[in-house]
Amino acid sequence: xxxxxIIGIDLAKNVFQxxxxxxxxxxxxxxxxSRPQFQRFMAKHPACTVAMEACPGSHFWARELGGxxxxxxxxxxxxxxPFVKRQKNDAADAEAIVEAATRPNMRFVEPKNAEQQARxxxxxxxxxxxxxxxxxxxxLRSHLYEFGYIAPIGIQHLPRLAEVIADETSDLPKVxxxxxxxxxxxxxxxxxxxxxxxxxxxxxxxxxxxARLLQTMPGVGPITSLxxxxxxxxxxxxxxxxxxxxxxxxxxxxRSSGGKARLGRISKAGQHDIRRLLIIGAMAAxxxxxxxxxxxxxxxxxxxxxxxxxxVAIALANKMARRxxxxxxxxxxxxxxxxxAV
Length: 342
Prior knowledge:
The chain contains 13 helices and seven strands. By secondary structure, it is of the alpha/beta class. α5 runs antiparallel to α7.
């Protein structure tokens, strides 16, 4: 095994397919190992480059294999697909991972540490609870609508529905009242869990220096700073702020050919959670700026006069992403550029 320089691994829960290759790319071995066998094999194998596709377990194995002395390369699955030969199976996938990892200009995913993944878990659980609460509120609205009781969309109108359920003099049948009360109890329970999670997120936002720096920017709060810490790679991996904005999918999609530049809508090719939160934050920053008054000679003032509000928000989110890159790479707080004056 001394001549093996790179090992491609097709990860799974219990069965791992390995493809070992020499420096010239020639295959040295192909192995199919169980989880315990895989751990023992990699612990005994001489240090080499280990490549794998980005997936839920890849960051854990990147930390484990890195601790064994191996150099780990994590690749996005979309960059591996072009190297799969004919039929797709575990062995072909492992070989394709090796082929992709040996390309000189290949882009790799930065492995996350345990702390980043913990923040990602908090963010995802909050997302799930919010979605479940919205689902239950909509279900409650629908059920009461069948008996003639209506309420506008939004959790702020939930007390109106609660009053209908609590009013025993209404014509709502007792059986339906009991069932709807159970839904209401579930909604209250989810709200309590969400409040606890929000407190935890606020506490996390005060712990790290990066989170405190990010929250000095208008439109960036604890949730957005948590998402950036959890999902964004180190800012040093981007050459400039535009590269970070492009990674988020906030730049126009290009269909240029023959020297003619053709730009379309934003690509939406990157991390959708951070992109969504930055656009929401940009909308909030615009509302605050409108209340204070936006000078017409500024970039934002000119954009507001000639573009729809959502397009302005996306353009402002692009600028916010670039400023976030500058703030984190220079370790500086936000400096107001007077809303990007001419």
